[in-house]
Amino acid sequence: MSLVDEVIDAHGGLDRWRRASAIRLRVSSGGLAFATKGQRAALHDLTATVSTRGQSVTLEAAPWSFRFDSQIPRPRGLWWSTEEVAAFAACALWTYVSLPFVLPELDVEERGNQLVVRFPPELRTHCPTQVLHIDDEGLIRRHDYTALDFGRFARASQEVGAYRRFGGIAMATRRRVHPSLWPHRPLLVWIDVRSVDVIPAHGLLRDGEHLGDLAVSVPGDGKPRHQKLAAGE
Fold first, then answer.
1. C-alpha angle 223/23/214, rounded to 5°?
2. pTM for the whole thing?
3. Of 193, 151, 174, whose CA–CA distance to 50 is shortest?
4. Which of 199, 213, 219, 225 could be 22's S-S partner, Cβ–Cβ 3.0 to 4.6 Å?
5. Per residue in 162-220, pLDDT tens?
6. Peptide bond into 100 cis (omega under 30)
7. Quick check: helix, strand or coil at residue 17?
8. Contact, 43 vs 82, CB < 8 A?
9. Secondary structure of residue 11 in the 3-state scheme
10. Which residues are 166's β-sheet partners?
11. What are the two backbone dihedrals, phi and then psi, of residue 53, each rounded to the nearest 5 degrees?
């Protein structure tokens, strides 16, 4: 079995990913990087719905919402508008949620416990070449890239952890981004995932449950939330 196959299996497998139509996350994010763009608090309480088919992302936060389909725009200029910081978040969250499940569609080189991933130009992501560091269990533990939206010298190293399983899919709920070149490594971006819903073609599949009429969500406080689903919801 290749390292790519091991990593995909460790995160829940392609079958589970393909049975889902989208992943919905409640997430908060901030840090020095956003503050430098005048958007310190824009992403503090955000609901993101990431499609498992194509590069479609919907973001909702009071008092705004944006939907990006296929062509996610790049932010421009020194200061970012709300739409521009949302576009960056859509690009980033699509990358983090979709990896490692989209690896079979990409150019991937195995180097020991690392995967060097090359993205085609039609996919909007941080940069064309990114490196995933894999632990002994097959989980992604570090993600290296250049955040080109912040400049060509914005080389970043992202710590990935606090994995939990939602509907059988392993999802990191804590990410911390530091510059890879600076000696004191200030915190550039923090990302905390509060809850995750796996949305299949019919019904709502949440942590600990299978397809059916009962869904269970386990948010950040660890207390299950139950809800009956209407037909076709």
1. 50
2. 0.86
3. 193
4. 199
5. 999 999 999 999 999 999 987 678 999 999 999 999 999 775 555 455 433 333 343 44
6. yes
7. helix
8. no
9. coil
10. 169
11. -125, 110
